[in-house]
Amino acid sequence: MKASLKASLWSALVFPGAGQIALGRRSRGLIIMALTAADIILIIAMAVSRAMRMLNELQNAGQTSLDQINQIAARASQENSSSLTTLAVAVLLCLWVFAVIDAYRLGRDREG
Predict the structure, then answer these.
(1) Which of 32, 33, 54, 71 is the most buried (most CB within 10 A)?
(2) String of b and e for 27-60 (b: at least 16 CB within 10 Å)?
(3) Averaging pLDDT over each range in 9-13, 51-55, 61-65, which range is the top one?
(4) Residue 29: its pLDDT value, please?
């Protein structure tokens, strides 16, 4: 298998930056991995924070109906933090695509 294909598969299927490391570009791969991991941690933290706010609101409401739960969930999804979540997911997607393309280009340079 060609180095370019192997590296791009590593970055696409294992973790962004893994292909760069497989090609010997360790610092470049670690930077991509660190940025990706930080973004994933941010997304998870925002999701947990939103879930905790929803749970607190449900507890404060006492006995709740399914309609009240739906209303609380709808309000939570329309908060300002949802646009930040969307941005964080877009950044994650861009990092992933960049890592795959970069690994492929580095592999092509190595091949010829």
Answers:
(1) 32
(2) ebbeebbebbeebeebbeeeeeebeeebeebeee
(3) 9-13
(4) 98
Banded pLDDT at 106 (limits 50, 70, 90): very high
Q: How far apart are CA 2 and CA 41, in angstroms?
A: 33
Alpha-carbon distance of 20 to 3, in angstroms, equals 11
3-state secondary structure of 112: coil
Burial class (CB in 10 A: 0-12, 13-18, 19+), 106: buried
Write the DSSP assignment of 31-73 as a string of letters.
HHHHHHHHHHHHHHHHHHHHHHHHHHHHHHH-S--HHHHHHHH
Q: So what's the pLDDT on residue 57?
A: 83
How many domains is the chain built from? 1
The pTM for the full model equals 0.82
Whole-number average pLDDT of the chain: 90
Torsion angle defined by CA atoms of residues 108, 4, 23 and 99, in that order, rounded to the nearest 10 degrees? 100
